[in-house]
Amino acid sequence: MASSIETVQKILQETIAPSVSRIEIELAGVKADIRSLQSEIKRLDDKIDNGLSRLDARMDHLEDKLTTALEIRERLAALEAKVAAH
């Protein structure tokens, strides 16, 4: 009986153990690839965030310029109306 169990153990070790070893090696590679992808995603997120921050700043600046232009237009229209009235 012990001999049969030892034989089965030996067969399992010879057939399954190498496969498990290969799977563990491949899994380690997959984990490394995932870490690399996570780093790349983080880098891209940071790049996008920086770009959006710059875009927000530009839009704020343009909004200020537009507000100033509208105020100048209103004042000019008021002056033109006064000149036309005299």
From TrEMBL:
<keyword id="KW-0175">Coiled coil</keyword>
<feature type="coiled-coil region">
    <location>
        <begin position="20"/>
        <end position="82"/>
    </location>
</feature>
<protein>
    <submittedName>
        <fullName>Uncharacterized protein</fullName>
    </submittedName>
</protein>
